[in-house]
Prior knowledge:
Elements: E1 6-23, E2 29-38, E3 43-46, H1 55-58, E4 65-76, E5 91-101
Parallel strand pairs: 3-5
Antiparallel strand pairs: 1-2, 1-4, 2-3, 4-5
Amino acid sequence: MVNARxxxxxxxxxxxxxxxxxxxxxxxxxxxxxxxxxxxxxxYFIKVCESNITAEQLKPYLNxxxxxxxxxxxxxxxxxxxxxxYAQSRSxxxxxxxxxxx
Length: 102
């Protein structure tokens, strides 16, 4: 089982806020869009349900550069609860946003 709350790194960083189409495990695209931070090394999924910042607060920064305090973690991408039934959820590296630096 994946540990959904394993912290890797905390930092302040400037990246581009983008949206990507949600893709099912089978590789099929959906109409749902998800928020990501595009940083120099990779795109990080933003796990909004664990963040101190809502998706609505992020929308004005879409496709723009944004400076944030964040934590990089590994775990379940789709659920905030650590429930065994969610073991089939997508898992991987994601970010939790603490605050927007203005």
